[in-house]
Amino acid sequence: MKKTILFLGTLLLITSCKTNKTKSSLVAQNAVKNVEVKKNYTIDSITVKKHLYTLASDEMEGRATGTPGIEKAAQYIEGEFKRIGLTTYKDLGSYRQNFEEKGLKMFNVIGVLEGKSKKDEYVVVSAHYDHLGIKKDGEGDRIYNGADDDASGVSAVLTLAEYFKSKGTERTVLFVAFTAEEMGLVGSKYFGKNVNPEKFVAGINIEMIGKTSSYGPKTAWLTGFERSDFGKIIQKNLEGTDYKLFPDPYPKFKLFFRSDNASLARLGIPSHTFSTGPIDQDPHYHKVSDQAETLNVSNITETIKAIALGTESIINGKDTPSRVIIED
């Protein structure tokens, strides 16, 4: 009887060990699968559309600086930064860089992806998340949703953050949603006052990429193309693809100085803005009709893919753009 009990006990122990090993093996396999999925993250239109339609929804109330609407937008961006796994900037206690300007409490939203071999060299990927808010009077729709201007750009920043997080980078990348661009580049100017320009290698700003550019499908243009060799680096990296980058076709509008790239460029940082906007004939620019439904999600997605491929050599330290020339 004792021998039988001993035998059964030994059998149960072996069976239990095998079961535990099987469970452990399955857990390990699932963990590997999860890592593989994360590493193989691809830029897709489903994710882009989710970001775009959320940020440009009526619930965001036009995202005017100092309003409940922009607070909602900031919370969404913070939530995405946390989900992706970005860290906070310097000694900030959260993703927010808080400050006061023009009698308003303001905040840039910053997520950090620390680099490996060149972690003390910084690249900024940015777009402004504020817009014009709600019209004070009038009938019908009064919300300036700002879908192209610049929910499309912020959607790109969030998508690129997830993409580069999945791949890892050599240089440290700051993903920044600037506030109060519509009030005169206020957020980016504040950010620029608190950086050491010598440590910043490039600024990749994204503004209005929801429509087909005047150069045709699968094209974008870059502000200040002639002011550094940043644009030429992107063109080189896009060779062999069906996507092309061109110089800004609207020099008379001086767009290089009208978006957040300018705040960094004035410090000497080669900071430029990617755009596809046909700004000379855009019927929705700064109108309540700038809604997500008017945009081409595929255009946004393909442009984000091109920006990712075009800037990857800069982000990974293989290319370093020349310092920017500011003189008009």
Helices and strands in order, then pairings?
Layout: H1 2-39, H2 45-55, H3 68-84, E1 96-101, E2 104-113, E3 118-128, E4 133-134, E5 143-144, H4 147-167, E6 171-178, H5 186-193, E7 200-206, E8 219-222, H6 230-238, E9 244-247, H7 261-265, E10 271-275, H8 297-315
Parallel strand pairs: 3-6, 3-7, 7-10, 8-9
Antiparallel strand pairs: 1-2, 2-6, 4-5, 8-10
Helix pairs in contact: 2-4, 3-4, 4-8, 6-8
Describe the structure.
The protein is an alpha/beta fold. The protein is 39% helix and 18% strand. It has 8 helices and 10 strands. The strands form 2 sheets. Strands 1-2-6-3-7-10-8-9 form an 8-stranded mixed sheet, with helices on both faces. The chain has a two-stranded antiparallel sheet with strand order 4-5. Helix 3 runs parallel beside helix 4.
Summarize the structure.
By secondary structure, the protein is an alpha/beta fold.
Strand arrangement across the biggest beta sheet? 1-2-6-3-7-10-8-9
Number of helices: 8
Question: How many strand units?
Answer: 10
The proportion of residues in beta strands is 15-25%
* Shape label: globular
Radius of gyration using CA atoms only: 23 Å
What sequence of helices (H) and strands (E) makes up the elements?
HHHEEEEEHEHEEHEHEH
Main beta-sheet strand count, sense and barrel state:
8 strands, mixed
